[in-house]
């Protein structure tokens, strides 16, 4: 992404001319799209039709799966755009719509994983508070609506701006790869936009999520529920891996690139483009979160896949967690 009004820097132009990079990114997107649609299609079916009751945790997972599937339907357009040499021919409205889907997935995923982490924290570390303050499914549904509202309000400039950019020297029209500096009215507006995307929608949720899972692991460490503790550790590892591998590089590079571009006329565009590509990997890893976060999802998936039944030791552990699972949806 370049905040530019007229002339592009050499790093951006060289990337547009680099066919090998374009093909490599397209291949990654193709693999992600296939894994996304298969994994999240199965997950959505299990969550909607095979998992009951619809606890708050399940509602959060449905919300996360919905955002992942939205990304899966948008990626084929990005693949075509890449293979056409960064030439967008579907018009500015479609460009803005698909860009919104792209980034809504990222930030709604971050907020939803934070909500799942808070849900587990309340269920395991603060069970009394959890029972007193939670009002069944309504709070989870309101939370999901709030997440979407927050993300869409922060990303509102993307909906109201023409994100296409003509590059006559290359004979192409880009989509979101070059942003006009006047997309926002002032430099302070750019600072506010960056603060909201990088800190409000990423860094703050990352800190909250990390805190919740550390406390959950510490709490389970004092109990004898070895199987539950092992799953909690694996879940925490996957969630934090998604944050550090998928979300952190892109948001850090986005912040650094935009600051360098606005204030120093330099670019980290190639690095940003690659980290944006890998940020989509979260949609492939989310089904693993469901597997370790939901006992009901885990059992239904085992039945569908005809996996061998649980060992006797793990079965006893699962049985001991039934009451807690019914209360907290974990």
**Which class of secondary structure composition applies to the elements?**
mainly alpha
Strand proportion, as a percent range, falls in under 5%
CATH architecture: Up-down Bundle
CATH class descriptor name: Mainly Alpha
Number of helices, where a helix is a run of at least 4 consecutive DSSP H or I residues = 14
The radius of gyration over CA amounts to 21 Å
Overall pLDDT: 80
- Please, what is the CATH homologous superfamily? Rhodopsin 7-helix transmembrane proteins
GO biological process, one term: blood coagulation
Disulfide bonds: 95-175
Keywords: Cell membrane, Disulfide bond, G-protein coupled receptor, Glycoprotein, Membrane, Receptor, Transducer, Transmembrane, Transmembrane helix
Pfam families: 7tm_1
SSE map:
Blueprint: H1 10-17, H2 19-50, H3 56-83, H4 91-124, H5 127-133, H6 138-154, H7 156-159, E1 164-167, E2 172-175, H8 187-221, H9 226-264, H10 269-279, H11 282-293, H12 295-305, H13 312-320, H14 322-328
Antiparallel strand pairs: 1-2
Helix pairs in contact: 2-3, 2-11, 3-4, 3-6, 3-11, 4-5, 4-6, 4-8, 8-9, 9-10, 9-11, 11-12
Q: Care to describe what's here?
A:
β1 (164-167) and β2 form a beta hairpin. The chain has 330 residues and is mainly α. The chain has a single domain (10-328), classed as Up-down Bundle (Rhopdopsin 7-helix transmembrane proteins), CATH 1.20.1070. 77% of the residues lie in helices and 2% in strands. A two-stranded antiparallel ribbon has the order 1-2. The chain contains 14 helices and 2 strands; from the N terminus they run αααααααββααααααα.
């Amino acid at each position: 992404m370049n905040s530019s009004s007229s002339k592009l820097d050499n790093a951006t132009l060289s990337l547009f001319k680099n066919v090998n990079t374009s093909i490599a990114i397209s291949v990654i997107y193709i693999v992600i799209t296939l894994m996304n649609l298969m994994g999240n299609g199965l997950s959505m079916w299990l969550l909607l039709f095979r998992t009951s009751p619809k606890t708050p945790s399940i509602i959060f997972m449905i919300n996360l799966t919905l955002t992942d599937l939205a990304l899966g339907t948008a990626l084929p357009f990005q693949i075509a755009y890449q293979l056409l040499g960064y030439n967008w021919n579907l018009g500015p409205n479609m460009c803005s719509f698909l860009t919104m889907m792209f980034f809504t997935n990222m930030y709604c995923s971050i907020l939803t994983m934070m909500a799942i982490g808070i849900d587990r924290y309340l269920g395991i570390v603060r069970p009394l508070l959890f029972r007193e303050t939670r009002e069944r499914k309504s709070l989870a549904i309101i939370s999901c609506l709030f997440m979407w509202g927050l993300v869409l309000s922060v990303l509102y400039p993307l909906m109201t701006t023409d994100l296409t950019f003509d590059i006559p020297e290359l004979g192409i029209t880009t989509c979101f790869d070059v942003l006009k500096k006047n997309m926002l009215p002032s430099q302070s507006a750019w600072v506010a936009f960056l603060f909201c995307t990088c800190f409000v929608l990423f860094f703050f949720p990352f800190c909250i999520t990390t805190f919740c899972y550390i406390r959950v692991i510490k709490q389970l460490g004092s109990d004898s529920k070895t199987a539950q503790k092992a799953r909690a550790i694996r879940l925490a590892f996957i969630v934090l891996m998604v944050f550090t591998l998928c979300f952190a590089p892109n948001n850090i590079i986005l912040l650094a690139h935009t600051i360098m571009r606005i204030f120093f006329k330099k670019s980290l565009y190639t690095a940003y483009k690659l980290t944006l590509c890998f940020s989509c990997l979260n949609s492939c890893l989310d089904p693993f979160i469901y597997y370790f976060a939901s006992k009901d999802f885990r059992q239904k998936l085992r039945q569908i896949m005809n996996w061998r039944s649980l060992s006797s030791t793990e079965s006893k552990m699962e049985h001991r967690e039934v009451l807690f699972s019914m209360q907290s949806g974990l």
